[in-house]
Design a protein that fits this description.
327 residues, D-Maltodextrin-Binding Protein, domain 2, 2 domains, three-stranded antiparallel β-sheet, 15 helices
Length: 327
């Protein structure tokens, strides 16, 4: 009898000891993500992962913030205000050259979507045709070094081109004040098609300039102190992109739900153009990156004088998370 009472007492004690574990669900890890720009289809991975509960499934509570002119992902992540960011590979490269401890963890666009358009009736089809024509330029943007590198690769003297500084609005091009317009090939041409304007595309990669586009990045500190969080974030967002590219109509509706300023036709256009930029020309998985392409990207900025010396690529990017996700 005493033995049975002792066993009952021990069992009761075990139940009491286990109650906190049984009743307490592990709190999700909270992180803040800063997009390169405002909400759009290009950031479908994060936005879909948020709406479809993918982050939650992987034990994360994620705040996804818009970027903008005064909301630099580079500055905000470097300062610790945000944990992970999306920015041009060139921006991360140049930030690293300035001593900021930022590390690329995956590539969104395997090739930059920066390109140039000209009206079809202008007869401008190649960079050589820029000579003697009015070409819009955007100093301080990712289009400028791509433009400079393309001309250099083709042996074109910039002084023979009538370069006109421009802002982001396509109005000067639409009004015929400039004949060549720097653009994101996955986005702005939608406006031309909507207006029924026929155009030629001058794609830099066809003329020797093929660099990485947008990438995911974080800090050395985040990688060292919270590698599991970084891995789960990346796993979630890559799943979000795969789902979005396979379910573009539904994904478009999800993107539109984030802002009433978005145009449905423009977002659908972007989804229709994204596949080759996200997947690239290889059979690698979404997000993958390699040294050869990083070297080519860096060389562009060395050639145009934006980098004085090469950056240590071993510290610039890591594939440690992609390797675990795709093993």
């Amino acid at each position: 009898m005493k033995r049975r009472a002792l066993k009952a007492l021990i069992a009761a004690a075990l139940v009491v000891a286990l109650l906190p574990t049984l009743n307490c669900k592990k709190e999700p890890d909270k992180i803040s993500v800063r997009l390169k720009w405002t909400y759009a289809a290009g950031f479908a991975g994060d936005l879909v992962a948020l709406r479809k509960g993918i982050f939650e499934k992987n034990g994360l509570e994620v705040e996804v913030h818009e970027g903008g002119f005064n909301l630099s992902p580079i500055k905000l992540v470097a300062s610790g205000a945000d944990d992970i960011g999306l920015a041009g590979a060139d921006q991360v490269l140049l930030a690293r050259a300035e001593g900021l401890p930022l590390v690329a963890i995956a590539i969104l666009f395997q090739t930059t979507p920066v390109g140039f358009v000209a009206r079809k009736d202008s007869g401008i089809e190649t960079p050589q045709d820029f000579i003697g024509r009015k070409v819009a330029i955007r100093p301080g943007t990712d289009a400028m070094p791509i433009y400079e590198a393309m001309l250099k690769k083709q042996g074109i003297d910039r002084s023979k081109i009538d370069e006109i500084p421009a802002q982001y609005s396509m109005v000067p091009f639409l009004e015929g004040k400039v004949e060549v317009w720097p653009t994101y090939l996955i986005y702005e041409p939608a406006q031309l098609e909507k207006m029924g304007i026929e155009y030629n595309v001058i794609d830099p990669k066809d003329y020797g300039v093929d660099t990485y586009g947008t990438c995911f990045f974080t800090t050395e500190k985040m990688i060292k102190e919270h590698p599991d969080v970084v891995e789960r974030y990346l796993k979630s967002v890559l799943e979000g992109y795969r789902w979005a590219l396979e379910n573009k109509d539904e994904a478009t509706q999800i993107i539109l739900s984030f802002s009433d300023k978005l145009d449905s036709a423009q977002e659908r256009y972007m989804f229709g153009k994204m596949d080759p930029f996200v997947y690239g020309e290889t059979e690698e998985q979404i997000g993958w990156m390699d040294r050869e392409k990083w070297e080519a990207t860096q060389q562009v900025y060395l050639d145009v004088g934006m980098l004085e010396k090469p950056v240590d690529l071993d510290s610039l990017y890591t594939t440690q998370f992609l390797e675990k996700i795709y093993k």
